[in-house]
Amino acid sequence: MVGVSVEIADVPDLPEGVAQHFREQGIEELYPPQAEAVEAGVAEGESVVASVPTASGKTLVAELAMLTSVARGGKALYIVPLRALASEKKAEFEAFEQYGVDVGVSTGNYDSDGDWLAQKDVIVATSEKVDSLVRNGAQWVDDLTCVVADEVHLVDDSHRGPTLEVTLAKLRKLNANLQTVALSATVGNADEIADWLDATLVDSTWRPIDLRKGVLYGQALHLDDGSQTQISRGNEKATAALVEDTLTDEGSSLVFVNSRRNAEAAARRLSDVTRDHLDPEERERLEDVAARIRDASDTQTSDDLADAVAKGAAFHHAGLASDHRELVEDAFRDRLVKVIAATPTLAAGVNTPSRRVIVRDWRRYDGDVGGMAPLDVLEVHQMFGRAGRPGLDPYGEAVLIANSHDELDELFDRYVWADPEPVRSKLAAEPALRTHILATVASGFADTEDELVSFLERTLYATQTDETGRLETVTENVLEYLERNEFLEREDGDLRATGLGHRVSQLYVDPMSAAEIVHGLRAADDRPTAFGLYHLVSRTPDMYELYLRSGDREEYTELAYERETEFLGSMPSEFEDSAFEDWLSALKTARLLEDWASELDEDAITDRYGVGPGDIRGKVETAEWLLNAAERLAGELDLEWGPAIREARKRVEYGVAEELLDLAGVRNVGRKRARRLYEAGVENRADLREADKSVVLGALRGRRKTAESILENVGRKDPDLTGVEAEGDASEDAAGASGDDGSGQQSLGDFE
Ligand code: ADP
Q1: What's the pLDDT tens digit per position in 476-488?
Q2: What is the fold of 8-203?
């Protein structure tokens, strides 16, 4: 099929106006892999697996499939691997709304059926969200005609891969004619993925812009075409020298390092390089971006990021708040920020191409091996793929750094010449099957053990395995576990989910988390404290762990004895080493949540626990979700702890002590303003509706607009503050001058 030239106008069935739209975007002729996909029928409802390098136009393949499907009266689903990407993709697809294509994004709670999505033509969601929608019986799922799986090679990920795998199997079972389009990085065994999905394979190494790969050793940059260039180094470290070298050519760099801390340190160091390459206008615009970063949150991380950005460098990692990430990515695309130091987790999917990609660290700490392990070839190649902006750079360059001659050879063998590892299903592991078997039975995909096995045969795992019996053995263990915990009943090969089992499946918690919660709640003989509940949810496998640092063991052991009476369920003995460690690290998380719910400042928390603001958000969000699940489970079991759980959840949601719950729930109030109102004697909503306006205005530091909107939100009849003087020493001018009333962040509501 090589060499076929296809114009966008030749694609059949596109909605009216769309071809013109693409042409206006500079897309006239399809890239060769896109043309191949069209030849394979991707615009006519045929299933296709496209294994194509990063930035070679996979999105367009997906768009052609979805838009033509919609034009024929169908409905399409686009599955993204990360939540952060869902909004990005939605924004991209919204360009088609003017041609009558409605786009919806489904994020948020995992326990609704998202009925409103029935009206949409194109839906964007993560695989977890789709899985939960299926579990909750969303009717519109039956109407899907096209499903796209982005970054399908992630089925190899042991944590999230199985969900994508099972979800695709379920969607395909529900709808035999479903068109499946899977987009993958270039992997060696894309043919197996295509086999599994009954799809035609488009396997290509074509890129729109040349990529040169190489390794820097000393001053010499060895490239894969056999050439060598000199990078002048002086006293500079390798990374700084490479960044400087790119800058003299007016290019930007992306530096991959192995930890958040390293990303921050690298950005700080590299900002000393970039600051000498800024013109006055750039400096001014960067100051502006830095100010917006400071506004977004009042933490050390935020300050550090702003300091670096003002000088033209930035860091990017999962500990950053979403506003920060967006500001950094935009400034990089606008060529204001000249270098980003990033962790590998964020390499995938983030659309920030740059002239040069520098993979500084090719080893990373791996908890499973308890030490440093080399990155996968696939991962490094994806980082490489970010090099080169078509139309802007003459070529992209991806560079590794060697510290010895042997390492130079090793890096060439390991990454430059090497092919990526094959993608292997990770489904046949107990934690994955525990949740998916329960859901498969609870949502009616299998009523007997035979049906369950034949359902599992539709997965990639079954296509790939030659280990006979492994799936059956793990399945048997899992069924026993689910039965023992009263989630499933088995009789003569028939399978039935119990009421509790249905609940657990719909709540989208790991059955093991549910079992821990049920056990803990049943063990309580008194109203549980918020702290006890935080600890309970923190010890479930759904809450990712905070690691214990040196010295933590003593500190938290002491705390464990101090607060022993509050725990739900019995504490493991200090001699059961790993169980006790887990208990303590859950305790650390519980105290973080308690600190947050006791109005401790965000930056005090980041300091105390050595985490970023994004981590606090992550913990708070997970705690809210698990406490909501706990409340529903308590209801299912007729336990009387519902109100206590709800209160504990509201406290983490707003980040306030008990007495502020009523006030903090009013829109625009938030934790800090609620505290100030309370201290001024305005203790609840009723007070707020009646209180002397000058007191309210004083407590809100003279912020008239804010105060009016709060009064309006609480339903006060006369929210107008014209002519009202603020009580106390707060004057509008003083507060207005800094543009800040010290309330900082309103809440951690922004989780996207
Ligand atoms: P991938 O998803 O493979 O990483 P993208 O779909 O993001 O890559 O495409 C990278 C860039 O190439 C986008 O900016 C896109 O607009 C552009 N592009 C895609 N197809 C074409 C084409 N046929 N002609 C010109 N530009 C294209």
Answers
A1: 999 999 999 999 9
A2: Rossmann fold (3.40.50)
